[in-house]
Structure formats: C-alpha cells, structure tokens
Amino acid sequence: MQRVHAKKFLGQHFLKDLNVAQRIAETTYKGQSDQVPSTEKVRVLEIGPGMGVLTQFLLKDPNIQLTAIEIDRESVAYLKEWYPELHLIEGDFLKLDLNIIYPDGEFNVIGNYPYNISSQIFFKILDYKDRIPLCSGMIQKEVAERIASKPGKKAYGILSVLLQAYYDIEYLFTVDEYVFNPPPKVKSAVIRMTRNKRRRLDCDEQLFKTVVKTAFNQRRKQMRNSLQQLVGKGNPILEENIFTLRPEQLSVDQFVELTKMIENERNQDIL
Question: Exposed e or buried b for every residue in 216-232, given b needs 16+ CB within 10 A?
C-alpha cells in the first residue's frame, strides 16, 4: 500500500493509532442524541482526511453522510484509490464557500486539524455558526486548552471568548506524540464544541469581536489603556470599574456588557 508523505508546510502528522482514531470519529455526535435522527443521516464535513484514518470509521457509520475536503494532491489520489465511495472535494477549506457544499441545512465538522492553521479554521467555523451545531476533532494541546479555558486562567484569550460566546466547549482527552507519524513536538488534544442556546449576542457582534481582539492584544494592560482607542483618550467612560480590569478577568457576558457600553458611547458621540 502506497503511503502519503507527510509535508511539513501543510502541518501534516498522520495519526496511526486506530483506537484513538475511532474515539475521535465518535465525537461527531456521541452524546448528542438529538443529532442522530432515526430517518435522516447527520451530514459531516471532514477537514484534511489525509490517508483516511478517521474517514474509514466515519464511512462505516450508518448515521453519517460524509463529505471530505483535502488540499494535498498526494492525499487526494490515495483517498480516491482506497475510498472510492467517499465524496471528496480537492481544495483549501479556508478558501471554500461552505454554502456551495451545503446550500441549506446544518452540518457537523470534524478533523485532525493542521496545527499551523487550526485557529483560522475555528474562526471560519464561527462564520457559519448558525449552520454548524457541532465541531470536534484533534488540535495542538495548547490550543485546545486555550479554547476551553475559563476566565482568570493564563490560557484564556481571544479564541476562548469568541468561541465560548456561541459554543459549549468540552476538552475530551489528551493524545501523546508517539501515535503520529512523524511524531509532533507537542502533545495533542481532542475537543468538542456544541452550539449553545445563544443565537445572537445582546450587542453589536462585529464590535464585540473588535473589543475582544483589541483588549487581548494588550492583555497585560488594564482595559482603560487598551480600549481607549475605541472611545477616545480621556473619555469619562474609561473610569468605570470594568475598565480597570484586565481582559482575562472578564467572562463572555461581561465582554458583551462592555461592548454595549462602548456601543452606547459611540452612539452618543454621533448624536
């Protein structure tokens, strides 16, 4: 059996432990009984199937209708040979319009995500949050901890707030380096993100993103310093107690309230 050569520039590390692969494959709806209808299959989009270590389990699952996206031509050729029944799209997930793949309805996302673009993948998931009820898979352990982190922790940051605003995060299990070929220099982790009941934030959502990113870009500073560019230097609103905190101290709901304060202040300036 011809194998695919791992390419460093694509961040490829091929999982070789089938037990781990099966556990990851099960995360796409395990524990989500409302997502396993009796008559309809769950539509699942796999990102970066590589040599199909997850794919083989997903294809065997009678509850799943699988589509996969792969950018590596060598992997595409391998998958077409060994999994001819797979609906495979050759392309870059970050550049694809997912509305073309799924013109309507919901779909789950799963993958052994390339470490070098995992954050970009999750930011794109947010763009389709109303259509992706569940996203799971394996990423670098450090990034997984960041996504799942709670306020007050060192790992808490931009990804934590933006993803937790719309998803409930589960850190499922850690994966050691030796189950990969070639082994990465870091440990990995499997997470599951399930869409929460918060359909919309009670604030300007674009401004919310700006506030979060601006605050954490100077995470060691009090927010009266990092956010003054959004309301103007010397603005009295900066004396409010919430602006004396550092960003890692604020929950998602507090960031929403902070955004509403800034939004109201800006509207006053317009009037």
Answer: beeeeebbbebbbebbe
Q: Write the CA distances from 99 to 41, 44, 107, 164, integer angstroms.
A: 19, 14, 11, 24
Instruction: Quote the pTM value.
Output: 0.90
Q: Which alpha helices (DSSP H) does 180-227 contain, by range?
A: 205-216, 223-226
CATH of 8-195, one of 3.30.70.120, 3.30.70.2740, 3.40.50.150, 2.40.110.10: 3.40.50.150
| Digit-coded pLDDT (tens) for 172-184 | 999 998 888 766 6
Closest CA to 51 of 22, 12, 8: 12
Task: Indicate the CATH number of 205-270 among 1.10.8.100, 1.10.579.10, 1.10.238.10, 3.40.50.2300.
Answer: 1.10.8.100
Mean pLDDT of the chain: 89
Report CA 31 to chain centroid distance, whole Å: 19
pLDDT tens-place string over residues 57-89: 999 999 999 999 999 898 899 999 999 999 999
- Measured in residues, the chain has a length of 271
